[in-house]
């Protein structure tokens, strides 16, 4: 259950809901995810709460055991999905790593807006979303993980994050629960 009080300010943080990522072979229907995310954006705007749109435009250069597949990020790959009803005064973050707080001004922007709680959605559950949840938790944010507005290339990774990692970092809820609490 989410706990809202007079000292709590919530922001929606959307991870990598963008053309290139949504074109990957995802475990859940990307159109459904975008539809739910768009509904949340409208609700947060209506309630005059911050909306954060994060996109990825690269990756760290460190060595890994797993061979990194070449992804052509040219063209419109990094553009946010146009079905999201974003506004010019929303917070925009472009990242070049997994988590949205690393090498960005996201934490400072959320602090400036008085935010201490985030509703987290996006792709990929086990990479960008989970990394951002871990970073937010480490920074002291209350984290609401809206698992029906997340997906991953691998269903088993998505389920593991939702069932085993997110409960240790925050509260796991469905978007309908948050929507009913905010209406």
Automatic annotation (TrEMBL):
UniProt keyword annotations, A-Z: Hydrolase
Q: Where is the Isochorismatase-like domain?
A: 11-176
Q: Keyword Hydrolase on this protein? A: yes
Recorded GO terms, molecular function?
Answer: hydrolase activity
Q: What InterPro entries is this protein classified in? A: Isochorismatase-like_dom, Isochorismatase-like_hydrls, Isochorismatase-like_sf
Record Pfam families: Isochorismatase
Record bears the keyword Hydrolase:
yes
- Which PANTHER family does this entry report, sorted A to Z? ISOCHORISMATASE FAMILY PROTEIN YECD, PEROXYUREIDOACRYLATE/UREIDOACRYLATE AMIDOHYDROLASE-RELATED
Q: What is this protein called?
A: Isochorismatase family protein
Organism of origin is Vibrio agarilyticus
Q: What is the lineage of its organism?
A: Bacteria, Pseudomonadati, Pseudomonadota, Gammaproteobacteria, Vibrionales
């Amino acid at each position: 259950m989410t706990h809202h009080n007079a000292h709590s300010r919530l922001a929606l943080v959307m991870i990598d809901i963008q053309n290139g990522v949504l074109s990957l072979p995802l475990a859940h229907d990307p159109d459904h995810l975008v539809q739910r995310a768009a509904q949340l954006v409208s609700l947060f705007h209506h309630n005059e709460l911050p909306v954060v749109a994060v996109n990825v435009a690269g990756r760290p250069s460190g060595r890994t055991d797993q061979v990194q597949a070449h992804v052509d990020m040219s063209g419109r790959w990094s553009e946010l999905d146009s079905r999201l009803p974003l506004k010019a005064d929303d917070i925009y973050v472009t990242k070049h790593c997994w988590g949205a707080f690393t090498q960005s001004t996201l934490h400072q922007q959320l602090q400036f807006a008085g935010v201490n709680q985030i509703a987290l959605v996006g792709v990929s559950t086990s990479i960008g979303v989970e990394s951002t949840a871990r970073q937010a938790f480490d920074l002291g944010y209350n984290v609401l993980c809206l698992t029906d507005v997340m997906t991953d290339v691998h269903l088993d990774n998505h389920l593991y994050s939702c069932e085993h990692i997110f409960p240790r970092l925050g509260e796991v809820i469905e978007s309908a629960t948050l929507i009913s609490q905010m209406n």
